[in-house]
């Protein structure tokens, strides 16, 4: 099946949007996760707070997903 | 009203010191006063513990050490102890005597066994040399050497060199686990020369201190030590059984004594939190307003009206301990405030708002009839097993129920579209995204309105308008600019710009430069609610993939049907776990980060009345 070059580029762009933002989110979560585990070793009650803090950067990848969907929408229109 | 914490009254109790013990006892049984610690100043020192404190803490240390020696752990549901301190002291003394004899005995046996093991090793060496242990006794005219040399060839060269000095010697050699061992008996007069020869060949002496003095041959002695060791090991097993019996007999006593002593010690050490002079004491604290009168009456009765109790409502800058007050349905959600921070005494208690929005967000992300019903059953089962986590599990059960409702809204059953959905998560993600962001706009603005109420109460109306209403005007301004641009309405962009400029000026006045710098945050916050769609979307797509691959296996037929069933069970199991964790954390995060940042201050101490156990 033949796909137009522009369609392929759109798919690539949306893939990049989510991929790059996922790497960024993972990186940020790693830094926080390391600190959270360290704090938990000292004080176990911090588990709840650590868990919450660790998922905070997940917003980044959600923005990535939103942008990816918006780009895919270009393909329709 | 449920949006405000329990009203508290500041209470000061003073009295002569001889009544202190009665007052502490009464307070402990009332379980109503949150004691505010006194810190030492020029007016008054802190109090000294009651006389019994020393004895109580000694007994407690003893009980705790017995518990750790017997390997008993606290399990929370302590039994009621009905006897007093002397009985506990006596019983713990008796127990520790019994335990110590057992432990001493067991240590003695360990010593003996290790000695016998060493002797057995030495006997093995003697056996390889063909020497009886008696041969090691000291002689008048003979010098004896026993030990390792470098290798087998050294034995012969030692023999050759010895012959040159004397012919009165006997050299034995043997192989002990790969190393060469020798025994040399030589004329006492040639002792030094012999030692010289030996040390040239790398001789290292070995002492038979454990085997020395045994009668009979080496082999017979090895058997003897072995039977001895077996006997001792059996005796040790008996002792261990005895300790285990002690553990079973005294477990209940130790646990109940531990909780009893802890409680008594809490009472005895309470004066450390009081202010005291040489002949009087003063207790500062907080009592919920609705129980104030009754508790003061009981205190006066216990002290036969010889104490003075002063009370007044909380002043503006007082650090009042907070006790949340919510209807039974909302109460489980107070768990989230405990996890984050207690709201301060004068701001709105957001528990009710969490009750409204948390299950909706959770349900929208999980949003599947099958997953909802399954997790509802799961949490119900866990609640039966773990009553201690009741409040969290109640929250999760309410949330799971809302997930079922959203499941009907999305028409999903384990990812399969079983009915015509209002919005299909799988195919209509744009509608879902708009819905999610719509929830975001409502929730963030609700936060701003709560913030306005808080500011109004603490800093007056104008400050509330500048600091919080400005954000809402900002949103209106951006909307009025964006809608004409998207050709949804026709309006001069000037009007939007005026709103925008006005809001920025108000922000500058209300929150300073910091507020202006944070301008974009309100939009990232609102956009962050897109996760309500994103988490759900990933969950439903995973579910569809699981269903599709299982269907392929079912079409193949035969044994592959079993594989298909396995894929369904394992796949949906993992997806439910991921979905529950994600939905819970992200829903919570939307409250803590996006919602609370609009109004919440927190930082208050939780109300913990004296005498009440957690």
Structure notes:
The complex is a heterodimer of chains A (77) and B (614). Chain A has helices at 5-42, 47-55, 58-76. Chain A has one domain (22-76). Chain A has three helices and no strands. Among the domains of chain B are: 113-226, 2-Layer Sandwich (Alpha-Beta Plaits); 331-598, no CATH class. In chain B, 61% of the residues lie in helices and 10% in strands. In chain B, strands 1, 2, 3, 8, 9 and 10 form a six-stranded antiparallel sheet that branches. In chain B, β5 and β6 form a beta hairpin. In chain B, α1 (20-30) packs antiparallel against α7, α9 packs antiparallel against α17 (560-595) and α16 packs antiparallel against α17 (560-595). Chain B starts with 7 loop residues before the first strand and ends in a 19-residue tail after the last helix. At the A-B interface, α2 and α3 of A face α12 and α17 of B.
Would you summarize the structure shown here?
The complex is a heterodimer of chains A (77) and B (614). Chain A is mostly helical and 77 residues long. Chain A is 86% helix and 0% strand.
Report the β-strand fraction of chain B as a percent range: 5-15%
Shape of chain B: extended
Biggest interface: A-B, 14 and 17 residues
The helix content of chain A, as a percent range, equals over 70%
Number of helices of chain A: 3
Number of domains of chain A: 1
Number of strand segments of chain B: 12
Pick out the low-confidence regions of chain A: none
Strand content of chain A: under 5%
Profile the largest sheet of chain B: 6 strands, antiparallel
Low-confidence stretches of chain B: none
Shape, principal axes of CA atoms of chain A: rod-shaped
Oligomer: heterodimer
The number of helical runs of chain B is 17
Helix content of chain B: 55-70%
- How are helices and strands ordered from N to C of chain B? EHEEHHEHEEHEHEEHEHHHHEEHHHHHH
> H/E order of the elements of chain A?
HHH
């Amino acid at each position: 099946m033949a796909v137009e070059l522009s369609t392929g580029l759109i798919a690539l762009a949306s893939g990049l949007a989510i991929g790059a933002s996922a790497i960024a989110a993972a990186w940020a979560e790693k830094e926080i996760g390391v600190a959270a585990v360290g704090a938990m070793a000292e004080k176990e009650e911090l588990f709840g707070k650590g868990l919450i803090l660790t998922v905070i950067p997940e917003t980044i990848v959600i923005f990535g997903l939103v942008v990816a969907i918006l780009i895919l929408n270009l393909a329709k229109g | 009203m449920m949006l405000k914490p329990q009203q508290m009254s500041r209470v000061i109790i003073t009295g002569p010191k001889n009544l202190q013990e009665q007052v502490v006892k009464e307070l402990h049984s009332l379980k109503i006063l949150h004691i505010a610690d006194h810190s030492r100043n020029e007016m008054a020192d802190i109090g000294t513990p009651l006389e019994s404190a020393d004895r109580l803490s000694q007994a407690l240390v003893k009980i705790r050490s017995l518990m750790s020696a017997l390997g008993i752990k606290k399990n929370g549901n302590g039994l009621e102890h009905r006897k007093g301190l002397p009985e506990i002291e006596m019983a713990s003394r008796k127990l520790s005597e019994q335990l110590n004899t057992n432990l001493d005995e067991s240590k003695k046996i360990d010593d003996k066994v290790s000695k016998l093991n060493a002797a057995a090793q030495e006997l093995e060496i003697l056996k390889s040399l063909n020497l009886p242990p008696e041969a090691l006794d000291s002689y008048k005219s003979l010098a004896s050497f026993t030990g390792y040399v470098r290798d087998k060839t050294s034995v012969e060269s030692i023999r050759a060199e010895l012959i040159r000095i004397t012919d009165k010697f006997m050299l034995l050699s043997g192989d002990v686990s790969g190393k060469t061992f020798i025994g040399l008996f030589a004329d006492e007069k040639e002792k030094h020369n012999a030692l010289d020869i030996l040390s040239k060949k790398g001789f290292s002496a070995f002492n038979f201190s454990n085997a020395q003095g045994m009668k009979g041959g080496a082999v017979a002695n090895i058997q003897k030590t072995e039977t001895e060791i077996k006997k001792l090991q059996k005796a040790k097993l008996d002792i261990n059984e005895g300790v285990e019996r002690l553990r079973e007999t005294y477990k209940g006593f130790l646990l109940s004594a531990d909780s009893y002593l802890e409680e008594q010690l809490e009472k005895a050490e309470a004066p450390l939190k009081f202010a005291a002079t040489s002949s009087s004491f003063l207790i500062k604290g907080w009592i919920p307003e609705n129980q104030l009168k009754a508790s003061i009456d009981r205190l006066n009765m216990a002290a036969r009206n010889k104490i003075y109790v002063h009370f007044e409502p909380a002043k503006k800058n007082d650090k009042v301990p907070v006790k949340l007050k919510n209807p039974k349905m909302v109460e489980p959600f107070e768990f989230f405030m405990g996890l984050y921070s207690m709201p301060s005494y004068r701001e709105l208690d957001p528990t009710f708002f969490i009750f409204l929005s948390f299950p909706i967000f959770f349900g929208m992300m999980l949003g599947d009839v099958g997953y909802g019903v399954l997790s509802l059953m799961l949490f119900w089962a866990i609640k039966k097993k773990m009553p201690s986590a009741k409040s969290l599990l109640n929250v999760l059960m309410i949330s799971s129920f809302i997930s079922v409702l959203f499941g009907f809204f999305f028409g999903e059953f384990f990812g399969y579209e079983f009915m015509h959905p209002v919005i299909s998560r799988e195919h209509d993600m744009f509608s879902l995204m708009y819905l999610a962001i719509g929830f975001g706009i409502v929730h963030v603005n609700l936060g701003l309105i709560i913030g306005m109420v808080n500011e109004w109460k603490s800093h007056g109306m104008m400050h509330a308008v500048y600091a919080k209403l400005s954000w809402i005007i900002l949103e209106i301004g951006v909307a009025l600019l964006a809608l004409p641009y998207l050709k949804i309405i026709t309006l001069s962009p000037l009007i939007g710009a005026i709103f925008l400029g006005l809001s920025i000026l108000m922000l500058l006045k209300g929150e300073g430069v910091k507020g202006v710098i944070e301008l974009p945050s309100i939009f990232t916050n609102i956009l962050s609610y897109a996760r309500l769609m994103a988490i759900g979307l990933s969950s439903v797509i995973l579910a569809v993939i699981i269903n599709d691959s299982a269907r392929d296996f079912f079409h193949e037929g035969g044994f592959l049907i079993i594989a298909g069933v396995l894929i369904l069970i394992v796949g949906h199991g993992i997806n439910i776990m991921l979905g529950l964790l994600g939905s819970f954390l992200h829903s919570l995060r939307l409250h803590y980060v996006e919602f609370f940042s609009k109004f919440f201050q927190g930082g208050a101490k939780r109300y913990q009345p004296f005498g009440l156990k957690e």
